[in-house]
Write a structure and sequence with these properties.
mainly alpha; two-stranded antiparallel sheet; 25 helices; 2 strands; globular
Length: 556
């Protein structure tokens, strides 16, 4: 009875905490959107509805997200089929290289694209030199540029999901279809596609929601083209805070409606039987010429996909003010990296990002662990509510949550749960924490649901208390899930841009804001060096989280 009472108390405290962190700020934004200085009013809602620019921004967010899904699928699905189904030399290495952009912060991909394909990037300057042009052959801005960056950075969702789906195919079903006379195309549409439907829907949902919340690419490449995330920031900078609240609510409604519509197909997609046979063997390429031609094509695709990040590495050695109109930088130096280590002004953003991401990750893992255990062990309404609250920040764009937190924690009213955190060093880790709750909780929840409840019962029967069972049985078994969720949360927080640009102060400025500042001052070498550091740290942490420990069992 005591253990059961403690579990209920823990669940109740967790529920109140999540309501305060996740729901309460969103409710305040909704109320501020319809509450003016003189009381309740729909004036700002009417103003929003009457402005064509608001509708264009909302429509821009919607169609850009839909187009991003199509383009990401067009790139990611063929790559998954090529590297998963065909027997190519080095297929595993190639498949791993293609997946690398998945672990890199979005801002890194954006600035890498800028250095390679921008008006003053390598490709543009090379064409100007070869064709003797006085002006750049293109301007990388507007909807086309945003879609190009989104397709490049989001194809990995389709690639990873479809690759996993292909690995889980039942080879016996393919053999049965062939024995019944089904051709290649009929087998594809009647056998393979239905089994891949959950993977395709999952990738489409993730791509759509990520694109809808995207801020880095529209902010840097948008030019005169506005989506709602950049429209919100512009409106706030113009001092129209009430209208910005209405814009925030509109984007939240669009995100939630899209999530509900896309998830309508999830139950049907999940009603498949489990795999009973072995995975299908890779398709051999018997003709040597075709085999080597496909291998060369595969390596060419990998080089093209990784070229922006290789460009970023090269630019990181360019001294300030030396690369202007030449197709290739004329000089190189390691001073940019030395400055990141020795110059206190340059070091500060790195230290800030490290401690902010670490603090947010530790807190997100702790809350995610508590929520996952409650949701896994309490299958009733309370467990489902907590699971939904933990997932809610994923459905709401980062710009929306940043404004919601700024609204909730800019007033000193502790009797209604509001304290002043805006302008302090705690607002950014709090924002990272809330944004990372879905990442940590989903990873840990998957591990918690795979645990055998008999282990807890056995530990209790041997006299182990609740905390000893957690420490010596549950946590060791959940170690891979904790590492996976924690590493993803750290990487996301370490390279965050969308919430940071709205909530940072000079003393807490993270790496992402320092990159933007360096770009504005034309110090491209330092900006690229920061990007390389982001890549190295993110890749290393992600690799740590992907490790499968040899000793994953309960501690003795």
């Amino acid at each position: 009875m005591i253990r059961r009472g403690a579990a209920k108390l823990t669940a109740g405290v967790l529920l109140v905490l999540l309501l305060w962190l996740v729901v309460y700020p969103l409710v305040l934004v909704l109320l501020d959107g319809v509450h003016g200085p003189s009381g309740w009013t729909l004036e700002h809602v009417r103003e929003f509805l009457a402005r064509p620019t608001e509708w264009r921004a909302l429509w821009g967010s919607l169609w850009i997200s839909l187009a991003s899904v199509v383009l990401a699928a067009a790139v990611g699905i063929p790559l998954a089929v090529l590297f998963s189904r065909y027997d190519l030399p080095g297929a595993r290495l190639l498949g791993g290289l293609v997946a690398l952009p998945a672990v890199l912060p979005p801002l890194v991909g954006v600035i890498a694209f800028l250095f390679l394909y921008g008006e003053t990037g390598f490709v543009s300057l090379l064409l100007m030199k070869l064709l003797r042009l006085r002006d750049p052959p293109w301007r990388l801005e507007g909807a086309g540029a945003i879609l190009l960056v989104h397709a490049y950075s989001m194809y990995v969702y389709f690639y990873l999901f479809v690759r996993a789906g292909l690995a889980a195919l039942d080879g016996a079903q393919l053999e049965a279809a062939a024995s019944l006379g089904a051709g290649r195309w009929r087998t594809l549409w009647r056998v393979v596609v239905p089994q891949l439907r959950p993977a395709l829907m999952g990738a489409a949902l993730l791509t759509f929601m990520t694109s809808l919340a995207s801020f880095s690419a529209p902010y840097i490449f948008g030019g005169g083209f506005r989506v709602m995330t950049t429209q919100i920031v512009s409106t706030r900078l113009n001092g129209e805070n009430e209208l910005a609240m209405v814009e925030t609510v509109s984007l939240t409604i669009l995100a939630l409606l899209a999530l509900l519509l896309l998830r309508e197909t999830a139950p049907a997609a999940e009603r498949g039987g489990g795999r009973k046979g072995a995975a299908p063997a890779r398709i051999p390429i018997r003709r040597p010429a075709m085999r080597w031609a496909m291998t060369a094509l595969a390596w060419l695709l990998v080089v093209i996909l990784l070229l922006p990040h290789l460009t970023l590495l090269l630019v990181s050695f360019v001294p300030v003010g030396t690369w202007t109109t030449e197709p290739v930088p004329p000089a190189y130096t390691i001073h940019n990296y030395i400055a990141l280590l020795r110059d206190p002004v340059r070091v500060r953003p790195l230290v800030n990002s490290l401690w902010l991401a670490t603090a947010a990750t530790v807190a997100a893992v702790a809350i995610g662990l508590a929520g996952a255990l409650v949701a896994a062990r309490r299958r009733g309404r309370l467990g489902r509510v907590i699971e939904g609250l933990l997932a809610l920040p994923w459905a709401v764009p980062g710009t929306v949550f940043a404004i919601a937190l700024a609204t909730a924690f800019s007033v000193r009213a502790p009797w209604v749960g509001r304290i002043i955190l805006v302008g302090t060093l705690w607002i950014l880790p709090l924002a990272y924490l809330v944004r990372n709750l879905p990442i940590t909780s989903r990873a840990i929840l998957a591990g918690a649901r795979a645990l055998d409840p008999a282990l807890d019962e056995a530990a209790g029967s041997l006299g182990a208390g609740r905390w000893r069972t957690l420490r010596q049985v549950t946590l060791p078994l959940l170690r891979p899930a904790l590492l996976a969720g924690g590493s993803l949360a750290f990487v996301t927080a370490f390279g965050d841009f969308v919430t940071s640009i709205l909530l940072y102060t000079y003393d807490t400025r993270p790496v992402s804001l320092e990159i933007l500042s360096s770009l504005r001052s034309a110090d491209v070498g330092v900006a690229a060096a920061y990007g390389v550091v982001l890549m190295i740290v993110s890749g290393s942490v992600f690799a740590l989280g992907a490790e499968r420990p040899d000793r994953g069992g309960p501690a003795g």
